[in-house]
Specification:
Layout: H1 6-14, H2 16-37, H3 41-67, E1 76-80, E2 83-87, E3 94-97, E4 101-107, E5 117-122, E6 125-130, H4 138-143, H5 151-158, E7 165-170
Antiparallel strand pairs: 1-2, 2-3, 4-5, 4-7, 5-6
Helix pairs in contact: 2-3
Length: 179
């Protein structure tokens, strides 16, 4: 008989990374407090930089933990050198370069591949990837490289109870300077 329920173990695994970074953040805050208590400006500046860096890592780990899903869906997602490839069990797979993506949408409408799917629009059409596909969690990290991409839109779409299509990101053509 296991000591913890499987759901509890899965929750602990999900929040493991933010938990470890939170401990490092608390240590960084303590170092910062010690530096200011001793009136050491150099140690204070170093502590401030460390606290800021660990704090930003904590924020990203927190967002990743909220977005992580325990279910597994059809297909495998592979990301290599800014190329996203989706290997599907049927003929619906494909590949797209990150630089060729024009729009990213997240559909919360139920479909054959799950309840949430990424829709990556590019010049040749679209690539539909289930959020629950193996390796799809890496897509959020890849999307962070796009200009003006925000995790807040992804969070709102992932946690939405309505069945709709959310536009997460759209590539805007470069603006020409006025003459």
């Amino acid at each position: 008989m296991p000591l913890f329920r499987p759901e509890a173990i899965e929750t602990l695994r999900r929040w493991r990374e933010p938990g470890v970074i939170a401990v490092l953040f608390a240590f960084a805050i303590w170092l910062l407090w010690r530096a200011f208590a001793q009136s050491s400006i150099i140690s204070g500046l170093i502590g401030l930089v460390i606290t800021g860096a660990v704090g930003s890592l904590l924020y990203i780990a927190y967002l990743r933990a909220r977005l992580r899903r325990a279910v597994s869906g059809p297909g495998i997602v592979e990301v290599r050198e800014r190329a996203i490839t989706y290997f599907a069990p049927q003929d619906s797979g494909g590949a797209v370069e990150l630089d060729d993506i024009r729009r990213i949408q997240l559909s919360t409408r139920p479909s054959d591949s799950g309840d949430r799917t990424w829709i990556l629009w590019h010049a040749g059409g679209s690539l539909v990837i289930p959020v629950a596909a193996d390796g799809a969690a890496e897509l959020i990290e890849v999307f962070a490289a796009l200009p003006h991409m925000g995790y807040d839109k992804i969070l709102r779409a992932m946690e939405a109870d309505t069945a709709e299509i959310f536009t997460i990101w759209e590539k805007h053509p470069p603006r020409l300077a006025p003459l």
